[in-house]
């Protein structure tokens, strides 16, 4: 690298999460890092943006010498505020994570971490979301650090195709037990949801989302399959949702 | 139809919005309608789900004889609660809208209305989101009612491909001025965002999202193009975000 790269780091677990601090340790080797991340957990916020009320942006020193801001909005709000208000321009790379918990399969749609990366792709900025298959607050990110360093290094060495981002998932294994990295496709798997239904102290019902994840995809080379086999999974992820292969089916309707 | 169809109606503008009442008037002609919609506006919530705290579901009589519930969560929460708590099974059709404002192009990712339909597609349920290119609270939904009736009728007459939903956008024109219906693709267009930056009464800054939409897509047959020409646009919309055509590009990286 001849000129210093500008790297935006964000996440959905908030500026306090261990994961984003572990990611910053890796990212700072590659250029000037600026952190803009939510001031509170924003898991499951998907591609939500804040339009009905204003946002706050508070500078903090949680990351030592690294310039860092806590934002009152969603992960996508963080990306927009960084580009349009802080930088008044585009960073060279957006890194989102390390997420506490995997974002394989259809979880990509619910994930604030991945939505921040997808927002980056929409801006034409090379963007990567990293997730570790471990939900605990003190998860061990050593393997995630090792593989993210390799991936970020390659992202700068190669031409990063425009309007796409990477969904990287790391199995919850020691570095030495991980077999390598695979380019995969988003598995067709779903949450069989259920709700914990209880009565509150005032006699009114409340409902709390829970559920079990079920993988129904028989194809080879899905992200879930790679993870099960002990590989890091990378899904090249786009934001064009058009089902091109079904357009002709609908053209037969008498509309 | 021999047996009565069960139709879930939701939206992101809340149970109070004119649009959902206009949609229910159409939907009730096709079967038994149950409304589960947010108790407050949820525009821009994308595919957000509520995981950190419980949800409320309050029966109401805003829709006369139609069974209706206001939910404290997001549009996707509404769909999940309807399927897993109220119905304990899948409806025959999910209708989301009528949205006050269009959801063409990349807006599909930010739209709570469309995310509810995409959630339906993930469940394998025929699902359609309808949006009118008019943001005003008292928008005229006459044309939207006319075209949605045609589309819903065809949805029941034909085989609805699984794991896909429809993103229907109606131009803000009188019914007679609309030229017809086109099956289109999601335009590659973006928000050039900016933030209104102001100081509050305590001397602290706040930031409020604004922006201008710019269509950079030169392809024919995009949703934006169809709308400009005065057609209703239907984009078949999927939830597999894998960029299959770029997988080989990334396989060349030294990972």
Structural write-up:
Two copies of one chain form a homodimer. In chain A, 25% of the residues lie in helices and 30% in strands. By secondary structure, chain A is an alpha/beta fold. Chain A has one domain (5-187, 219-251): Stationary-phase Survival Protein Sure Homolog, Chain: A, CATH 3.40.1210. In chain A, strands 3-4-2-1-5-6-7-11-8 form a nine-stranded mixed sheet, sandwiched between helices. Chain A has a two-stranded antiparallel ribbon with strand order 9-10. The model of chain A has no long low-confidence stretch (mean pLDDT 96). Chains A and B meet through helix 2, helix 3, helix 4, helix 5 and strand 8 of A and helix 2, helix 3, helix 4, helix 5 and strand 8 of B.
Q: What is the secondary structure topology, with strand pairs?
A:
2 copies of one chain form a homodimer.
Chain A: E1 5-10, H1 18-27, E2 31-38, E3 57-60, E4 67-71, H2 75-87, E5 93-100, H3 107-110, H4 112-122, E6 127-132, H5 142-157, E7 165-170, E8 180-183, E9 189-199, E10 205-215, H6 223-228, E11 231-237, H7 247-251
Helix pairs in contact in A: 1-5, 2-4
- How many structural domains in the coordinates of chain A? 1
CATH superfamily label of chain A: Survival protein SurE-like phosphatase/nucleotidase
Write down the overall geometry of chain A.
globular
Q: Distance between termini of chain A?
A: 56 Å
What is the number of helices of chain A? Answer: 7
Name the average pLDDT of chain A.
Answer: 96
Helix content of chain A: 25-40%
* CATH top level class name of chain A: Alpha Beta
CATH architectural grouping of chain A: 3-Layer(aba) Sandwich
If you consult CATH, what is the topology of chain A?
Stationary-phase Survival Protein Sure Homolog, Chain: A
User: pLDDT under 50 segments of chain A (min length 5)?
Assistant: none
What percentage of amino acids of chain A are in beta strands?
Answer: 25-35%
Q: What is the makeup of the main sheet of chain A?
A: 9 strands, mixed
What's the SSE pattern of chain A?
EHEEEHEHHEHEEEEHEH
